[in-house]
Amino acid sequence: MSITHCIFDLDGLLLDTESIYTECLQKMLTPYGKNFTTDMKVKMMGKSTLEAGQLLIRELELPMTDDEFLVKSNELYIEAFPDAQLMQGVQRLIEYLAKNNIPIAIATGSDEHLFELKTRNHRELFKLFDPIICTNATEVRKTKPEPDIFLEAARKFKQPPLSMSQCLVFEDAENGVQAALAAEMKVVLVPSLPLAAYSSNLVKQATVVLDKLTNFDPEMFGLPPMPPSSAS
């Protein structure tokens, strides 16, 4: 069955924000003599800001409350996120899908406030997505790796897919791949961390693994061919 709808993660997939998260969280942890490790990052990716903070506080035994984490992290994010740049190949892929009338959605662990900060300098491109589902949406009860956010995105399309298997999810994180598989959707993994940081079993379960979006071949999924371009 061919793909009819596409759903995208945001951080580390459409926008180069994972490096910003790492810098901000390390800046927060340094006064406590703690390091923000790759293992911790893998666990937090795809979670809501609150859930990620609770995980960080618990794992590193930080002397701060959930609210203190939210305030401190938000101060750092407000300064850093508006500078977020598109990942390689994003502009071309999204414009190609929109031109060919392939419905596209975003399902992100960000809340609406952070989503606005991150996309502020790319508003025209992000207008092409409908729906945009953030983790503070009332309908999303559980975050990735649960499938709720992807299922909600599929339901919110103006013309929902006939089957979840007609949805193609683009993800950079383990939690997101697990969520897509649980939703019975196909999934393209574009790792934002070294592949060795991911579970080898989970990598094998992804429909396709790419090193960057510019290598995506839509014809593999029954979509129209993408015109060649010298620009990425």
UniProtKB/TrEMBL annotation:
Cited Pfam families: Hydrolase (PF00702)
Q: What cofactor requirement does the entry state?
A: Mg(2+)
Keyword list (alphabetical) reads:
Hydrolase, Magnesium, Metal-binding
Organism's domain of life? Eukaryota
Catalysed reaction equations from the record: psi-UMP + H2O = pseudouridine + phosphate
List the GO molecular function terms. metal ion binding; pseudouridine 5'-phosphatase activity
What's its EC? 3.1.3.96
Q: Which InterPro entries match?
A: HAD-like_sf, HAD-SF_hydro_IA, HAD_sf, PGP-like_dom2
> Which family does the similarity line name?
Belongs to the HAD-like hydrolase superfamily. CbbY/CbbZ/Gph/YieH family.
Q: What is this protein called?
A: pseudouridine 5'-phosphatase
